[in-house]
Design goal:
The complex is a heterodimer of chains A (about 290) and B (about 350). Chain A has about 290 residues and is mainly α. Chain A has a domain of about 180 residues: MetI-like (MetI-like fold), CATH 1.10.3720. Chain A has 12 helices and 2 strands; from the N terminus they run H-E-E-H-H-H-H-H-H-H-H-H-H-H. Chain B folds into 2 domains: about 190 residues, D-Maltodextrin-Binding Protein, domain 2, CATH 3.40.190; about 140 residues, D-Maltodextrin-Binding Protein, domain 2 (3-Layer(aba) Sandwich), CATH 3.40.190. Chain B is α/β, with parallel strands linked by helices and about 350 residues long. The chains are: A mainly alpha (about 290), B alpha/beta (about 350).
């Protein structure tokens, strides 16, 4: 056997499985979704076609823009909240905890929610935020309020809190990984040269941890913009997200073309965010020289 | 020799698998919880040799979604009569030979003749259960019973304590509120739909939560989140009674919707004989008494229900009162169902 043939054989014996997997469960479905988004709705199903009517509907009927804007806003709120909660935690783990065992324990505790079912975790927040829930009972017990408040549950705030809790591991893990990689010598050098603590953080730690922050933001934003469980469980009358609308189009409406067009729009947004975060990371690299 | 053995084993496996998948007498059923309860399915299996494997749905949406998405694995489905139509029109279900249904003639004629089970001169569904969509409130939170849903907009004390079913059927009762009870709610014009949409959007600030499953509504009441809502007549109120929460169901002056669920045979099923066995059993005393006992809904065959229900229960389920059904506005698929779904989506999307 020629070396070249052998190389090819080796290559394909290793990659045939992944290529098939990637093609059949990722590439083909995306192409199908794209194709169906150009089909024409014809009650009760649809007929193959190539026209932009479904996309025109998405622009012309303001309900889709309203929901899309709401989804973007919620995803941003979740990402920012998660970042504010996760960065200090990751920083504490990477720099302040001296004992390796304690660090491992705290790190595991931070990501252990990942191993519990999403639904179960969302339901937990209902029992915390509800009118007769733990939060209201506590506030009444310490005397801040005299009657149970309904402002904690069944609104966008409840959705942000729930998703921020659920997606925290996706923010903590990349930030922790990037903080841990920062050479301690750089921080010591900064201190030796007389930089105050905050300057060291601003000029050394934060820029060097940006890849982790961007990765965390991308994960959290992408996961929350496509979420459709939290609006159903803890959202209120003003909480419908883009994924809920997609689900309706594939359900009772049986309008696969419109549902697919919505799916394509969502996919483009998420891909746009991934591209943007990739670009941002590159810019960061150049600046650091 | 080893190779042959493996081949044989593989062949045996394939045959065995194929045999079990297509075995005569195994019904795969897409249905609501309670409709294939073991308490009355086990006697059916013993008598006919047809096993029943249910998959449960949470909403009518799932019937067309699952069948259109390649539902070849199901033999029978049981959608409501406003969803049966789309399955007939899409050619997803088979015409039913009613001469093979022994008790067909005993089923309420309002359901037998319903547009949801008749299509192009043929019958495509066998009515099984029915009920109303009344409203209900927590008895301990009201001194005086509201008699019109107009109070939802007007009575400040209800604000934030209202829950509505997350379903396009809300359009119907609001249309009756706006245009009178005689309006054909299944054929509203664009202007009328727009008026209903605006009216319901105006109600959103007063709504605590749209409920989507029976259990969710029960929890909303049990946790003190809401005090008034629409409901699947008789079902959630009895679940709440088990938790010692007293509910009062009422039919407002705008009248109530009526629903009925019907069994349909999925097109191309290899288990047609077992499917007919089930349709027969479901409309005879075994299935009717079984499902009424488990769910608390009313049954489609009042004749056989006389055999198992005492007079008081029979009355309570409105099985004796043929006029009761006529007082309800029975669900149908709207003439322009896309416009209705779009209206409901617009209401839910509105900021």
């Amino acid at each position: 056997m020629k070396p070249r043939t052998r190389r090819l054989l080796n290559f394909w014996s290793l990659f045939t499985g992944p290529a098939l997997w990637w093609g059949t469960v990722l590439l083909v479905p995306y192409l199908m979704m794209l194709a169906i988004s150009f089909y024409t709705r014809q009650f009760p199903f649809h007929v193959p076609d190539f026209q932009f009517g479904n996309y025109v509907t998405l622009i012309a009927d303001s309900q889709y823009f309203t929901v899309l804007l709401r989804s973007l806003w919620i995803a941003l709120a979740v990402s920012v909240t998660t970042f504010c909660l996760s960065y200090p935690l990751a920083y504490f783990l990477a720099f302040k905890v001296r004992s390796n065992r304690l660090r491992l324990f705290l790190y595991t505790a931070a990501i252990v929610p990942l191993w519990v079912s999403y639904l179960l975790r969302a339901y937990t927040w209902k029992t915390i935020l509800g009118s007769e829930g733990i939060l209201n009972s506590f506030l009444m017990w310490i005397g801040i309020i005299s009657e149970p408040s309904t402002i904690f549950l069944y609104n966008q705030g409840a959705m942000v809190v729930t998703m921020a809790y659920i997606f925290t591991p996706f923010m903590v893990m990349p930030i922790y990984a990037s903080l841990e990689k920062i050479p301690r010598s750089l921080i010591e050098a900064s201190k030796d040269l007389g930089a105050p603590r905050f300057t060291t953080f601003r000029k050394i730690t934060l820029p060097l941890s940006m890849p982790g922050v961007l990765a965390g933001f991308t994960f959290t934003f992408g996961l929350s913009i496509g979420d459709f469980i939290s609006p159903i469980l803890v959202g209120g009358p003003y909480s419908n997200m883009i994924a809920n609308v997609v689900a309706t189009q594939f359900g009772m409406a049986m309008n696969w073309p419109l549902g697919s067009a919505l799916g394509v729009v969502l996919l483009v947004i998420v891909l746009g965010i991934i591209t943007a975060s990739d670009k941002l990371e590159r810019i960061g690299r150049i600046n650091l020289g | 020799m080893k190779v042959i053995n493996i081949k044989r084993a593989a062949a045996a496996l394939v045959i065995g698998f194929a045999a079990s998948a297509h075995a005569e007498g195994e019904l795969s059923v897409l249905t609501w919880e309670g409709y294939t309860d073991p308490s009355f399915v086990e006697p059916f299996t013993e008598a006919t040799g047809c096993a029943v494997t249910p998959t449960y749905v949470g909403s009518n949406d799932e019937f067309p979604a699952k069948l259109a998405g390649g539902g070849g694995v199901y033999d029978l489905v049981s959608p409501s009569v406003d969803t049966t139509t789309i399955l007939m029109k899409a050619g997803l279900v088979e015409e039913i030979d009613v001469s093979r249904i022994d008790h067909w003639g005993e089923i309420y004629e309002q359901f037998r003749n319903h547009v949801g089970v008749n299509y192009e001169g043929g019958v495509y569904g066998v009515p099984f259960t029915w009920g109303s969509i009344p409203f209900m409130y927590r008895a301990d939170r009201f001194d005086e019973a509201p008699d019109s849903i107009a109070s939802f907009w007007e009575d400040e004390s209800l604000s934030g304590a209202i829950s509505l079913w997350d379903d396009k059927t809300n359009i119907y009762i609001v249309a009756r509120l706006l245009f009178g009870t005689d309006v054909n709610v299944y054929d509203l014009s664009d202007d009328q739909l727009a008026a209903v949409r605006d009216k319901l959007i105006a109600l959103k600030p007063h709504i605590r939560k749209f409920w989507s499953t029976a259990g969710e509504l029960v929890n909303l009441y049990a946790n003190g989140e809401v005090t008034i809502s629409n409901t699947w007549g008789g079902y959630q109120s009895s679940l709440l009674a088990e938790q010692d929460i007293e509910m009062v169901e009422f039919i407002p002056v705008e009248k109530a919707d009526g629903w009925a669920d019907a069994w349909q045979i999925v097109k191309g099923t290899p288990n047609a004989d077992c499917a007919y066995e089930w349709l027969n059993y479901a409309t005879a005393s075994g299935g009717q008494c079984g499902v009424v006992g488990v769910t608390g809904y009313s049954g489609s065959n009042p004749v056989v229900l006389r055999e198992c229900l005492d007079e008081a229960t029979f009355e309570a389920l409105n099985q004796a009162d043929f006029k009761y059904i006529d007082g309800l506005v029975l669900w149908e698929e709207p003439a322009r169902v896309d416009a209705y779904i779009n209206t409901w989506n617009a209401i839910k999307a509105a900021q």
